[in-house]
Structure formats: C-alpha cells, structure tokens
Amino acid sequence: MVQASSVLSVGGLLIFGTLSSIASKVVYQTEGETFDGSVKDFKKPWASTALMFVAMVMCLPIAWIARLVETHKKKKSSDEQKPLLGKGDGDESTSRLAAKDATFKEVMILALPMFFDLTATLLMSIGLLYVTASVYQMLRGAEILFSAIFAVTFLKRPLNKLHYGGIAGCLAGICLVGASSLLSPGSGGSSQAGMVLLGMALIVVAQAVQAAQVTMEDYAMSHVGLAPLQVVGYEGLLGTLVLFLVLMPIVYFIPGKDGQGLHEDSLETAYMIGHSEPRWSIPLVLVANSLSLLLYNVAGMFVTEEMGAVSRTVFESARTLFVWLGDLLLYYTHTGLGEQWNNSSYLQAAGFAVLVVGTLVYAQGDRKQEGHDTDSHEGPLQTAKHEVQRAVFKFHHTISSHPQRSLRSRRWRRSVNAALATARLRPDEEDHHTPSS
C-alpha cells in the first residue's frame, strides 16, 4: 500500500542511514588481535570500502525480485482483463525498480561512474579515520557546492539568488564544523590537528568527486535502459572486482604504516576479523554496516520516487542530526565508542544549523528554477522553515492518499494544518505549491 511504503521508506532512510554512518566509524574503534598477539583498532578503510561495494551488489537480486513481482502483477492483471500495469502508485514504483536483461555494453558504460564512486568512497573512508561520524556526515554537505560548480561549468545551468544564498550558508556551516573539529580536545597537538585537517580535506574532496559521479551517472543513465537498483548493483559488482583483483593487492605491497589509509595488510585484516575483541564484534559491525547501507540505498530510492528529491534533502538533514545524537548516546552508554559532548560541540551545533539552512535554501532555489512559486522576499530562515513544512505536507499527503489511512488521527491532522497555515498554505492549494508525487 502507498502509505505503508512511504512510512517504511522514510523510516528506512533515517534508521538505516544513521546506522550505516555510525557503524562505519565504530568499526574503526573496534579492536582485534594481530598475528603477533597484540591488539589494535580495526582501521581498515580499504576493507570497509570493499564490503560497501559488496553490499551494493545485493541490489541486483532485489531488482530481479522486483521484476518477478511486476511480471506476476501483469499476469494477474491480464487474467482479470485489466490494463497490463494496473492502477496504482505501487505498480508504477515496482515497474521503475524492476530489472531487465543487461547487455555487456550497458554494464561497461557504468564503469566511469563506478570509478568516481569508488574514488569518493575510498577518500571518505580514509578521512573518517581522523574525524568523528557527525563531522564526517556534516562535511558531506559540501557536495552542494561542487554540484553547483558543475551545473554552471558543464551543464551551463544558471544559478538564482536562492542558490547563491544556499551556497554561502553551506560554505559558512562547513567552515564552522571544520573549526569545531580542530578545536576539539582529541585534536590537541600540531601533528594530531594536521591529521584531522587531512581527514576533513579528504572528505570535502570526495564530495567534489561524488558530484562528478552524479554527472557521469546522469550521462550513463541516458545511454542505458537499466532500473536504478540495477545501476547501483552493477556499479557495486564492477567496484568489487576492481578492489579485490587490483587495488587491494597493490596497497598490500605499498610500503607504509597500516591503518593510515595508504598501506593495508589484507591478510592481517582477515585474521583480525576472526580474532576480534570481544569475539565476533568486528564481523558483526561490518555486516551491520553493509546491510544498513544496502537498505538505506533502497529506502532512499523509494523516498525520491514517492516524495521527490527536495523532500529527501530535508530527511537527509534529519539523518545527520540522528547520526550525531546516536554517536553521543553510544559514547555515554559504552565508553570508548562514539563521541563525547565538549565545548567545541556548541560551535559544531551552530555550524550544523547554518548548514541545514543553507541546504534548504539551495533546495528552494531548485524549486524556483523548476517553475514552482516561491517568495523572493523571504529570509533564509523562513525559506528553510517552509521547505521543512512542505516536506511534512508531502509525507502526509503521500501516506493519506489511500483509503486505508493508518496515520489518520485528529492530532496529526491538526499539527499538519497548523504547519500549513504558518506557511500560508491550505490543503486545497497543494497542487499549486507542491509537486505531485
């Protein structure tokens, strides 16, 4: 049902996205025994990246299952003398996700976006060695800056005032978050501060690479007829082969210290996975991270499909907050994992708030560019507030568009109507202010 899938999609985006980011950092803080009997942290960014791409491969069987479901629906509909695709958003969503037979040429076209995805993931995995999960998640907001640059440079797409305001907000927020990380107690000393700065730089550079990946992926999608899940799955398959057959053997022989991102001993990695402290902690966290990443990608596709990219932007901002709260909760319930609250956290919170406002203002610029009504005299806080309210309305409209409304309570409707009144909207005006699902 429509409303059930929407609730599950948004919930999956928030829950599994949060778990994936936290688990990516926690595995670096989990200890394992080495060949000589010593115990050290499992700081293996190349192995973590490889497992992420293995998780992406799992999108292929999901796409094939969607194909079987679609085929069954078509057969049942044909038997009942109804249109082949039936009537309903659920059928359309299934059709968009279902697999088709991929040719070798189509798979090879995905090699270029896979290269960018692999590079960005590796840079972020190495950068995460030196920063907290919350800072890592917040710095990923820099992708907007590079997306805007590529849009102007390569796509010749003009930017409006809201875009520039959003870019300024994102840039200011990223600077505040970066400063808070450098001022945190754990980065004392010039050497440690230098590594923190390196980690943040790698994450920001990764966002530039990821923005390029989106551009390459758009190009690839226009030349292949594959479902989105298949694109993710085949990129994961190509990336897995490149990592295990080429890159990981190379970094094994590169001289350097293990755990800093350049050299990585794959034999020691396998040994530590089987000799973690406490036992099985490393494989459990790795599996949890891989499954969370897989489910997060699937949920994200459904959210974008049913509620639009702008609504997903709002929920992604909420996800960043949940990552931070989860990391704090983990620290105060399990000392040694997660991150603590300190004086620099206030600066980080301010940076996060500015970053969220900048992101939402930029999203409003996209709405204006697409021809939707916007108030050019609104301030950035009003613009951000209205974007949040639109996302809430879109979520409510999506889940209540089916006769069986599982969340149709008077309290919920009163709160939504109050939000709409604040935004100077009314339910009967939804077609003029909110894109249809």
UniProtKB/TrEMBL annotation:
GO terms for cellular component: membrane. Gene3D superfamilies: 1.10.3730.20. This is EamA domain-containing protein. InterPro entries: EmrE-like. Keywords: Membrane, Transmembrane, Transmembrane helix. The chain crosses the membrane at residues 47-66, 107-131, 137-155, 162-183, 195-215, 236-254, 280-302. It comes from Coccomyxa viridis.
